[in-house]
């Protein structure tokens, strides 16, 4: 049925809620509405859920500029406050409009709403992308590379959040990789790049030390701490305790 309706579906990586941004944003809004209820009614939020959804669907969305009800039915919702306002201003009258004219007008409004909503949504997405790309950095890994893996939920309180090293098996998409975790339950898992960090072996790290050969001609030479002049300066600056004998003091200075 979804093929006949032209619906396409996409897979998302687990433990990466940013992929379902629209759904997660709705869940956040709905939770805020439930938390705004009085404490007595908050315990029975499931009974009041239809009322909360009705209130959500009649409010215009910032991204598209229309309310969900208006995009679905082609006209603004007539809520309780709207009905009260109509009763105050003028009595309710039955609409005198032909069915064919109503359907044609509805189709025209729906097409206009969808065109404006698509334009507003595209502008909103471009703005969000600009904000996101300011600090976003594309990280790529190669098959066989060692990485750390971020565990979203630690099974124990004192367990590390990062596990590894694990091996990259294959690049599945632009930001997803197939990683060999080496566990019996799920040895291979598709992970988002945000949950990966490069692993560096200690044997691959090299300590860079400054030498006289690598210095430039104009730079100051490194001090020679083992020259006789430097040794004399160090010896003169040493203060020995008075409780030591002369032989002990000479032994300390010589050593």
TrEMBL record:
InterPro entries: Integrase_cat-core, Integrase_p58-like_C, Retrovirus_Pol_polyprotein, RNaseH-like_sf, RNaseH_sf
Segments forming domain Integrase catalytic: 1-76
Pfam families, alphabetized: Integrase_p58_C (PF22938)
GO biological process per UniProt: DNA integration
Signal peptide: none
SUPFAM superfamilies from the UniProt entry: Ribonuclease H-like (SSF53098)
Transmembrane stretches, start-end: none
Gene Ontology MF annotations: nucleic acid binding
Alphabetical list of PANTHER family matching this protein: INTEGRASE CATALYTIC DOMAIN-CONTAINING PROTEIN (PTHR37984:SF15), PROTEIN CBG26694 (PTHR37984)
Record's protein name: Integrase catalytic domain-containing protein
